[in-house]
Amino acid sequence: MPLLSVENVTLTFGGLTAIRDLSFQVHAGEIVGLIGPNGAGKTSIFNCITGFYQPASGQIVFDGRSVLGLRPHRRTELGMARTFQNLRLFPNLTAAENVMAGAHCRTRAGLFTSMLRTPAQRLEERQVREMALHWLEFVGLKDQANRFSKNLPYGAQRRLEIARAMASQPKLLLLDEPAAGLNPAEKESLMELIYKIREGGVTPLLIEHDMSLVMRICSRLVVLDHGEKIAEGDPESVRNNPRVIEAYLGKEEEGA
Amino acid sequence: MNTVNARSAGPDRGRLARTGGVVLLLAAAVALPFVSSSPYVLDIAIQMLFYMALALGLNVVVGYAGLLDLGYAAYFAVGAYTLGILTKTFQVNFWLALLAAGVFAMLLGSFIGMTVLRLRSDYLTMVTLGFGEIIRITANNLKITGGPTGIFGIMAPKVFGLSLGQPRNIYFVMLIVVVLSTIAMARLGNSRVGRAWACLREDQDAAEAMGINTLGYKLLAYLTGTFWGGLTGAFFAVKMTAVSPGSFSFMQSVTVLLAVVMGGMGSVPGVVLGGALVILLPEMLRAVSDWRYLVFGAALVLLMLFRPAGLWPARHAGKEEV
């Protein structure tokens, strides 16, 4: 049984069809990359999977159950976590608090227990803080725990977003262009991080523009263009697929 | 070695200073009615306590969750009227009526919240602005609320054998309410719930993606605020022994909001300070009689220019701790 199954999803905005009849699957343990030119619908399908957009038709099955109609926070509870293309950290919270927020759906303390500061609430609070430090260490930001996330360098913010997502204990981690804006050294450590995430039993699904990174890291690629799947397969076969080349480089003129 | 010692001593000394300050302030507050026999001073002190309690309640909505409510006086009014009607017309027990005041304000709040909080936060501002007026006008026209004259002759209840008709007793009751609220709110701000509100305020979509039920938490913040408003309103009715629509104008909502903004949105000590100042400053400016609101206004403009995050800003608005 696949971990995630996108079945014949179509997404429209008014008269514009952003995604047309798209199907693909992600199995636990593989690293799948979603690639395609700008405007191909990659982030749109992420938004459909995580619940920010409602597809006009089709089905999205996660971990054996349909998630259509569930609000994003419910899908996070079921074990999806995501990062955003344009970094959506909580800027005025510290790095540790950002990660602690990620653990929200795995903790319980409510209004009254928090006001009364019950022993259970205090214990949980301690555990959440330790857990936050654990994930900060995981992404190499432990010494930045008390800095406001807005004051962190860009690369660190990218990693912090991954730590925050990991704190929700996901089964599937959706990474929206995690390498965007990173320098080559940072990209290397990002790749190591993604491998480490998979070794921990979390399945990454990533959107990425950086072809060399995608070709090296992904076990399977799904290529989108104009909202449709034009190719799928291992990196080597995708690289040599004429339709993919056409989508990226344009069509060769007749007789040229 | 020295630097390590200095570092570890730093927070401890800060903590000591803070505890000392709180103890001194509390001692002064407890001593006040015994030191000064002036009814005027005591009345101002009681008013300050009312505004502190209201500011603490509104701070959950505005400061913690980032939802702008321009009609907070509505819940204050609902609490006051609920207590007045229940104890006077229906002879309900004071404690029950007190609870009912909070709960009833919260029910009205949930009616507003469930409908408006689904939309973007800006709509709440507009709706609450109207709602505040609706409540006042309704109270002005209903029979059960006594119309424009309101309800008077609310019997002062006895709490632990002390009549709340005595200004000194209501002063101490409100002091206890404010102290307990301060502790509860400070704890709330620094908890899982407080963090969820902070995330909501910072970035609603990201909060939702992190598994935070944004609609639920907005509603929770709003209901907490309305409950506090209703409860404070009930004590207000007891203190005044009368409630009338005139006490719950739009200016009332603005004054509470002012206390929150002036003190520092999201900062518990800040809004307590703000609640005190919105009463104290105009009183202290009585010397300049007609000019006092002009001076007050100018002071506020200066405040916003030089301390835009408030007099005692919340940590997130200030410098980070390294």
Give a summary of the structure in a few sentences:
The complex is a heterodimer of chains A (256) and B (322). Chain A is α/β, with parallel strands linked by helices and 256 residues long.
Structural class call of chain A reads alpha/beta
H-E order of chain B: HHHHHEEEHHHHEHHH
Number of helices of chain A: 10
- Nearest-integer average pLDDT of chain B: 89
Oligomer: heterodimer
Major beta sheet, strand line-up of chain B: 1-4
Spans of chain B of 5+ residues with little confidence (pLDDT < 50)?
A: 1-9
Characterization of the model:
The complex is a heterodimer of chains A (256) and B (322). Chain A has 10 helices and 10 strands. The mean pLDDT of chain A is 94. Chain A has helices spanning 42-50, 72-78, 95-102, 111-116, 119-138, 154-166, 184-199, 211-217, 235-239, 242-249; strands at 4-13, 16-26, 32-35, 57-62, 65-66, 80-82, 172-176, 203-207, 220-225, 228-233. Chain A has a 6-stranded mixed β-sheet, sandwiched between helices. Chain A has a 4-stranded antiparallel β-sheet with strand order 2-1-4-5, with helices on one face. In chain A, 39% of the residues lie in helices and 23% in strands. The relative contact order of chain B is 0.17. Chain B is built from 12 helices and 4 strands. In chain B, strand 2 and strand 3 form a beta hairpin. Classes of the chains: A alpha/beta (256), B mainly alpha (322). Chain A binds chain B through residues 50, 52, 71-73, 76-77, 81-82, 84, 88-94, 97, 100-102, 104-111, 114-117, 121, 124-125, 128, 146-148, 151, 164-165, 168, and chain B through 184, 187-188, 191-196, 198-199, 202-203, 205-214, 220, 224, 316-317, 320-322.
